[in-house]
């Protein structure tokens, strides 16, 4: 009887999965037609179709277990630690990633997560630590509950972050650092600040150079702030990284370029710049400086910390070595991806020059007006949590590595069955993505229709739809 029930349950799940695949086929066809009549951004379109699939399956009362197996959202990068199910080795051991939500203070006391009941100890500790942080800030003569005239945040936290940056040899202090509500907010403030400085000097705002494929949010910010966008396509022969020759050619061809946006570890292509590549790019800026042209380098460090620490250290030391270009160097940092704290919005800017940082304060004053006091104190509490528990950062990094390995293996298995990919790139084992080139005739829709996995097309990143990005975030990689 037990065997019969198991067989019946297995048959039912197989039938339910077939029904989900039929729904998938219907909706993919519907959205393909919609693509011809809309200018909706590809990333939104893919997110919409996943949402529509889930709603349609719910309306038809299909088994949620079948839906989870046949519809997998790999569009969004952020890891939801509440949904982590991986456990390598003994439960409760260093490989039990199910406890991350509890260990990071995300899980509520008593919350059930993948069979583990959260203690809530860190959740409570963070709140106690905020009280300790507030007292420390007040002893330094700063009141987080009153109006912050400079709007860049309290000097204690900025000093801590400057100390973190000094580990790579950057000669910075609290005066070089400004807080922001995540990296995206920081980038927007920097662009507006640079634009304001240009107008004060009677200069045109100019252009921002962006290599493609690349993070497209900054492009929208640049356009909104009056910049032109100068795109430089890259290719697999250069690991999708901007080369010194390409940078030199672009700067010579477009004298209006005043900012170069560089993802030190690329989203979506997942390759990171090597130290020698960064030094070569810096030398191009140095040559132009000798000719009287100052071009700012905005280096996005969002994924520095998700890969090999030694490799991160080497590339950051290469950037820090350009002390003669300090007034051109802008470093954008965040805890969103490296520490899985996307909802907390902890970000900061490190300017290579304190004088340059002082000149940018107006952009903070005229936008956020004053950093939220409670947010600053929570940022400080988290900073202490990670400083005192470095094993947590290592655990997050190992979870990312596990998921990247599993996702690449899964994509290879699917390719053997459906012949979808021309190339599944073996990247620098950084970021939280996998970047693939599709075979002729395939696109994101056909991949979703055949496999149930939703990715983001290359056009989202200013590139070709022959490419697709899949994320290891939100959900674990299911075993086949």
From TrEMBL:
Keywords: Aminotransferase, Pyridoxal phosphate, Transferase. This is Aspartate/methionine/tyrosine aminotransferase. It comes from Micromonospora mirobrigensis. SUPFAM superfamilies: PLP-dependent transferases. Transmembrane segments: none annotated. Residues 189-472 form the Aminotransferase class I/classII large domain. GO terms for molecular function: pyridoxal phosphate binding; transaminase activity. GO terms for biological process: amino acid metabolic process. Pfam families: Aminotran_1_2 (PF00155). The keyword Membrane does not apply. PANTHER family: BIFUNCTIONAL ASPARTATE AMINOTRANSFERASE AND GLUTAMATE/ASPARTATE-PREPHENATE AMINOTRANSFERASE-RELATED, TRYPTOPHAN AMINOTRANSFERASE-RELATED PROTEIN 3.
